[in-house]
Amino acid sequence: MRHIVQFSGGAASAYVAWLVVQEFGTENTVLLFHDTKAEHPDADRFRKQVSKFVGVPITEVSDGRSLWKIIEDRMCLPSFHIPFCTEVLKQKPAEKYYKELDKQGVDYTIYNGLGIEEWRRVQRSIVRAEAKGRKLRCLLAERNISDKEVKRAIRDDWKICLPEPYKYLKHNNCIPCFKAGKGHFYKVWRHYPEQFERAKQMEELVGHTVFEDKSLSELEAEWIALGEQLELDFGEEGVPCMCAV
Question: What is the pLDDT of residues 47-92, one digit of tens each?
């Protein structure tokens, strides 16, 4: 029996990896990673440190293209309603890996990092897996472990610094995440201007915008005009202290 952790490089999947190892051992655990080539470089540092800490190497199965390349290939921007970025860069590579195990007759259980704060997604992910005849568990939700507890354990107990994006963003995903809202893009504009500029260029390339009412260029002009007021409107989603060492 193999226990496969969907290992993204975020705090939640890192903690799930540790939970799985505690219960089933290193020899039975797989850290399955899909490279989107659009994450902050510090996510790679974090993954490697967690991999060493739990004693399991990273298994990478990737499409090979970046988020930006698949946007160019499709001449379309992904969104919450058409998340082809997730489908191409994560779901299809994962499916390829699972099908190979199916051919080999290997039994396995899949684990993701969804927690109690995302119970709707928890239910949907379990149902989707069951529809394909697979077993999926969401250990954080099962054990009522909060996002705050996860981050505290990683910082204070493991002595591993969380990835830099957690200073400003709620998740350590692609920068920007085209499935996120204006608050996310505002923070990307403030803290990751190169990636924001690239997203603006993608709007111009494909001929439509991330949001229906305004382009990123128009939003940028509004944000410049509003200045500090936006800090009160959007606030900060991350954690104040990233490293305990």
Answer: 999 999 999 999 999 999 999 999 999 999 999 889 999 999 999 9
Residue 234 scores a pLDDT above 60: no
> Is-above-0.85 flag for pTM?
yes
* Long-range contacts, 19-22 (Cβ 8 Å, 24+): 19/139, 19/143, 20/111, 20/139, 21/54, 21/55, 21/56
Whether omega before 176 lies within 30 degrees of 0, making that bond cis, reads: yes
Domain with CATH 3.40.50.620 in the chain: 2-157
CB-CB contact of 209 with 215 (8 Å):
yes
CATH fold of 2-157: Rossmann fold (3.40.50)
Location of structure tokens 């200045």? 227
| Tokens encoding 188 | 């990307």
